[in-house]
Amino acid sequence: MANLLAKKPLEQLMCEAQETGENSLRRALGPLNLVTLGIGAIIGAGIFVITGQAAAQFAGPAIVISFVLAGTACAFAGLCYSEFASMIPIAGSAYTYSYATLGELVAWIIGWDLILEYAFGAATVAVGWSGHLRAFMHDLGLNLPAMPTSNFVLFGLPVHLKYDYVGFLVILVITTILVIGIKESANFTTAIVILKVAVVCMFIALATAFLASHGWKPNYWHPFIPPNTGVRGEFGWSGILRGAGVVFFAYIGFDAVSTAAQEAKNPKKDMPLGILGSLIICTVLYIIVSGLLTHLVPYTQLNVPDPVVIGIRTTGHPWATFLVELGALAGLATVMLVMLLGQSRVFYSMSRDGLLWPWASKVHPRFRTPYLSSIVVGIFVALLATLLPLSVLDEMTSVGTLLAFMLVSAGVWVMRRTHPHVNRPFKTPMVPLVPILSILFSGVLIVSLSYWTQLRLVVWLVIGLVIYFVYGRKHSKVQISNRAGSAAKGTPTMAD
After folding, report:
1. Averaged pLDDT for residues 58-64
2. Has this prediction a pTM greater than 0.85?
3. Cα(402)–Cα(245) distance, rounded to whole angstroms?
4. 10-447 to CATH, choices 1.20.120.530, 1.20.1740.10, 3.30.70.100, 1.10.150.20
């Protein structure tokens, strides 16, 4: 057990953070890039897709409360992430932090969990992007070919699959952008973020003006909290909690910012700004948009791939509908980019530690990006987007994110006790209260998700543990170093 909980020395992490040369990542991101990277990931499927579906299925107009609860949980976790990201400015995010504080087995679990979070997150957004593109093309009088389907029986159960070729293709395009370079990816994200924030603000302005001119009618906020149907998670307060767990997907962008720490110019100063700044801006926008949307349109009509488009149509501005659809397409593209960036950087970090195969940490000699990792991740995510429905993808992403938040928060608490004198450019306030609140909020939201989602998480983690014990543990550089040290001292190892 001691070997399984072996920690990666903090001094080694600090040395890796200072590495330069052709095998290191390029430090090219400034504070504006980091804030827009966060906003680019946060404002996307959560506001353009998931908001309407969570309101229609779980919370009704009280989706506003769901966003407040999810934002509160994120605020606590964001403070913990900021401390780690400024203290250990290296790629890998929560995986790296856990390796230094909670040990290798926990680090593997969180790394494997982050793969779940980012892969399913990018696939979720790809499905939403596909739905928006179809609606956009239809409004232009054009229709894309229907998605191919197939029906078959698996283990005695009927299976109906739709092959979303549009989602597949857009993931491949985003993957190509990531392979070309981090600076190019960040500049693309910054430009698109400006566009989609402008679109969100336009929706807020037009919806507010429309409601004000009509005496704030129609008003579909009655009842604000629809009565529970008798099923846990379907409206009532359990529905608000279920909605919070689902829309939590909308906040995963700020933790993706931390995966780019090794590519930031001044990570100790700029990482907290990127994480907390993007989180605050997006939380305010989410609450306002969800409130206006459920005020304009009956929540029962929002279970569609493009709920904000439905809302803007109500205001009677066809030109605005066009802009919202265009903004949604552009905005969802940046979310996919940041999710895939985070996924490939976690792969890169785990590979450098020996826990995954060496090809995952290969850096392109010209572009200085982990290109093989990006390509393999892109193909895997493209297949997920092609085959799995949105309802499965978004809850899997949320549960993966919440588990990551719990472990990072625990890591901050542990690190304060084990390394109290380490330089912390940003310090989480009120430790251990803030980490404890983060763990509790995240735990409650995990419990609020469906039983099937929780079961899928367990299955995913079991698969990961098999890979760890078959490959990762044997090739771990920390384990190899420990075995070499034990052999030099004549101390028996577990292998002996």
Report:
1. 93
2. no
3. 9
4. 1.20.1740.10
